[in-house]
Write a structure and sequence with these properties.
- This protein has an 8-stranded mixed sheet with strand order 4-3-2-6-5-1-13-14. A 5-stranded mixed sheet has the order 7-8-9-10-15, with helices on one face. Strands 12-11-16 form a 3-stranded mixed sheet, with helices on one face.
- By secondary structure, it is an alpha+beta fold.
- It starts with a helix and ends with a helix.
- A hairpin with a 3-residue loop joins strand 13 and strand 14.
Length: 409
């Protein structure tokens, strides 16, 4: 496999580092987009991209008068059960020790309850375990070994979540990166420095050729090698979310993930954090998040979106405000922000909705979300910043020789 100069640009480059909204306006009236007043007919489901194929199943529950949380959970179970989805449930990419750890949370609007599990191993449907925590305990969150034992006690079967493909991708990462990717200072540390130097394109192509040979030696099928190499160079933050509202305005949401690929064991992102990865308020609406979990925790992203709507913002305005709060974590420093990304999926109880993202896409792919109000749709997100995010850790740096071309793409 060979990667051309344009392939490199499509997967690793930032198209532009200019702000998508001029001057990061603080007033809500500046937001102008077709999604600003978007409204669907009840009942409605909204979801992350990887859950779109399962929206019909969730909508059938809503249309039949079923519970909103059951509908949302039905949608997110699709990626959890799919061994080819390496970001959620079975087949999720493991931590740095080769063990799959899952996180999930759910909120049931009609009864104002929540449940959560974190770093749970050997149980495929973390989302359903989070509901079991809500239904059968006086707690909100269980983690680690305790969460696994509880799940088994509730009848969930233990199973090996590491598929052969995910194991091979992990082995490729081990051979190429070693175990120290997440041990250095984070970007918010005053000691963090952007990568120095600019590798030449021939060195970049040599790295990819070397990874391709490693992948072949590990037995990764030719048609899967490019994807595997991308996951090694840019560890994924795979997650899925779904929010659902029925004809009565009852609303619920659920978020589930295998977390950041090759993370430190025990790491929790935003997905199991009520108010960060998911938040549902029966008086207002529901919101979920996928993307850079550490940053989203710091701004309580999903809760922030809901509170913005409570105070009169539209779903689009509420999401854009949350994204601006995230950029302020880095003082709008684009040298850092192009390694960060975030998507919010926002549903108000009257059917108004929005899907927003920090960047237009990542690694050459545009961000989209799913909507079902009787018709299943795939809709582009509204981006705060123009261009594409890059994977983290920040390797490789965009070569200097590409800078002029980046400005024109």
């Amino acid at each position: 496999m060979t990667w051309s100069r344009r392939d490199f640009l499509a997967t690793a480059a930032v198209s532009s580092l200019t702000l998508g909204l001029q001057g990061q306006e603080k007033t809500n009236s500046t937001v102008s987009d077709p999604q600003k007043d978007a409204k669907a007919q009840l009942p409605v489901l909204i979801c992350a991209n990887n859950a779109i194929p399962y929206l019909d199943d969730g909508y059938a529950i809503l249309h039949g008068g079923g519970d909103t949380l059951d509908a949302a959970l039905k949608v997110v179970q699709g990626p959890e059960n799919d061994p080819k989805d390496t970001g959620v449930g079975l087949g999720g990419l493991p931590n740095e020790e080769g063990v799959v750890e899952l996180d999930a949370c759910c909120m049931h609007g009609p009864t104002r309850r929540a449940g959560s599990v974190g770093a749970i191993r050997n149980i495929k449907n973390a989302s359903l375990v989070s509901k079991a925590v809500m239904d059968h305990t006086g707690h909100v969150m269980l983690v680690g070994e305790g969460a696994e034992k509880f799940a088994v006690a509730m009848g969930f079967p233990r199973e090996n979540l590491l598929t052969d493909h995910s194991r091979k991708v992990w082995m490729l990462w081990k051979e190429y990166h070693s175990n120290d990717d997440w041990w250095g200072p984070g970007m918010t540390s005053p000691y963090w420095k952007a990568p120095e130097g600019s590798p030449q394109s021939d060195l970049w192509e040599e790295r990819v050729r070397r990874l391709d040979q490693m992948a072949a030696n590990l037995g990764i099928e030719p048609e899967l090698r490019e994807s595997a190499i991308s996951k090694v160079l840019f560890p994924t933050k795979g997650t899925t979310h779904c929010s659902a509202v029925n004809a009565k305005g009852e609303i619920s949401g659920a978020t589930t993930t295998s977390g950041l690929a090759f993370k430190l064991p025990g790491r929790l992102g935003d997905s199991p954090i009520v108010g960060a990865g998911c938040y549902s308020d029966p008086d207002v609406g529901s919101a979920g998040a996928t993307g850079s979990g550490e940053e989203n925790i710091k701004i309580a992203g999903a809760h922030t979106v809901i509170e913005n709507m409570r105070h009169g913002m539209s779903p689009l305005e509420a999401g854009m405000d949350a994204l601006r709060r995230l950029t302020r974590l880095y003082n709008d420093d684009m040298a850092k922000l192009h390694y960060v990304d975030m998507r919010y999926y926002i549903l108000r109880k009257d059917g108004a909705y929005a899907g927003v993202s920090l960047w237009e896409g990542t690694n050459g792919h545009h961000h989209v979300f799913g909507l079902h109000d009787g018709t299943k749709q795939t809709i582009p997100t509204v981006a705060l910043l123009k261009g594409y995010s890059q994977g983290f850790p920040p390797f490789p740096k965009v070569p200097d020789e590409f800078k002029d071309e980046l400005k024109n793409n």
